[in-house]
Design a protein that fits this description.
CATH architecture: Up-down Bundle
Largest sheet: none
Keywords: Membrane, Transmembrane, Transmembrane helix
Protein name: Isoprenylcysteine carboxylmethyltransferase family protein
Number of helices: 6
Radius of gyration: 18 Å
Transmembrane segments: 43-62, 74-95, 134-163
Subcellular location: Endomembrane system
InterPro entries: Metal_cation-efflux_comp, Phopholipid_MeTrfase
Shape: elongated
CATH topology: Four Helix Bundle (Hemerythrin (Met), subunit A)
Length: 195
Amino acid sequence: MTVVGLTPPHVYVLAAVYAAWTLPEVVDDARGSDDGPDLDANSRVVLSVAVGAGFAVAFWAAFRAPAWATFGGLALPAFWAGVLATLAGVALRWYSIRALGDAFDRSVTVTDDQTVVARGPYAVVRHPAYTGGFLAILGVSLSLGTWPGVLAVAAGVSAGYAYRIRVEERALRRELDGYDDYCERVPYRLVPGVY
């Protein structure tokens, strides 16, 4: 069975969207940061492995999917919904990173002069950059066009972010003045009213 997201011209659209998302991430990651102690507890590794495992299943399913595992007649709308979800997720992620400013770091760390950021998307949920990342990743899996792929990515991303958020919040509650009060004011981590 041919999957829409893996056939021209759709595969080129998906590749361009994926590149527009990941290249800035790689460039930003290469800049690195050594501000403050590393409190990460390997959560970056856990998140990467969990997301990678989900994507491995999603790509395997996209290439090997039997007809029952695909979106069938909804494949084209699902592809475009996935592209839009990816773009929206990337936009939310970078807006959130920008709102954090100097407090953003790819590792869990707290500096002496760091303060709680409660403006912009951080007034709605505590980890909007992760919400954006989650939406972007799910969008790519949706564009690949199989139910097993979407479910595998959702499971992997959920597990990875759950661990990452637990590590990060434990560190922030311990190291950052005012974070407990912030958690009281903004009770949801990723999705308002849900989690």
